[in-house]
Amino acid sequence: MPVSLNKVQKHISKKKGGKLTSLHQNSRDANRLRRAGAREDKLIKILDAATRANKVYVDRIDWFRSALEGSSGALSEAELQALTEGYIGRNDDELAQAKAERRPGRPPSKVEERITEHKNAEEREYKAGFWIVDLRQPEDRDKLERWSGDWAGLNTLKFIRITRDGFVKDSSFPPKGLS
């Protein structure tokens, strides 16, 4: 079982009489410290990558929650589709502005490319089954309103996949493929 960097530092400083000021470059203790530091760096990178990957879904659910503020009750499947299409088209104004600012004959800007890529990816997902919170039941909507806004809190919500054709299928958390 890997030992954290703090535990390694504490153990070595106790062994050295309370101070950790000088170690030989290739000593066992120095190597232990380097390995523990590398483990921590690796774990931090993995956690950051997972957080970035999950941020897309957290932002999506947060957008749906904010779009429903001021209303109450369950939604029909048609309302869910309209809400999903509103989510996919949320950056249309920014895209139109970026296109208008571009001089004729010039390639698209980075902002324009980024927005277009996101929109195309969301359109493809919507065609196959867009992953959203199930808001067809009032108790599911209440759970969404009580959601704390973090990834770990999403496991209490119920999810569905809705397609452009109007087909609705139950889904799971976390989203995997077309579950």
Automatic annotation (TrEMBL):
<feature type="region of interest" description="Disordered">
    <location>
        <begin position="91"/>
        <end position="118"/>
    </location>
</feature>
<comment type="similarity">
    <text>Belongs to the TMA16 family.</text>
</comment>
<feature type="compositionally biased region" description="Basic and acidic residues">
    <location>
        <begin position="99"/>
        <end position="118"/>
    </location>
</feature>
<dbReference type="Pfam" id="PF11176">
    <property type="entry name" value="Tma16"/>
</dbReference>
<dbReference type="InterPro" id="IPR038356">
    <property type="entry name" value="Tma16_sf"/>
</dbReference>
<feature type="region of interest" description="Disordered">
    <location>
        <begin position="1"/>
        <end position="32"/>
    </location>
</feature>
<dbReference type="InterPro" id="IPR021346">
    <property type="entry name" value="Tma16"/>
</dbReference>
<dbReference type="GO" id="GO:0005634">
    <property type="term" value="C:nucleus"/>
</dbReference>
<protein>
    <submittedName>
        <fullName>Translation machinery-associated protein 16</fullName>
    </submittedName>
</protein>
<feature type="compositionally biased region" description="Basic residues">
    <location>
        <begin position="8"/>
        <end position="18"/>
    </location>
</feature>
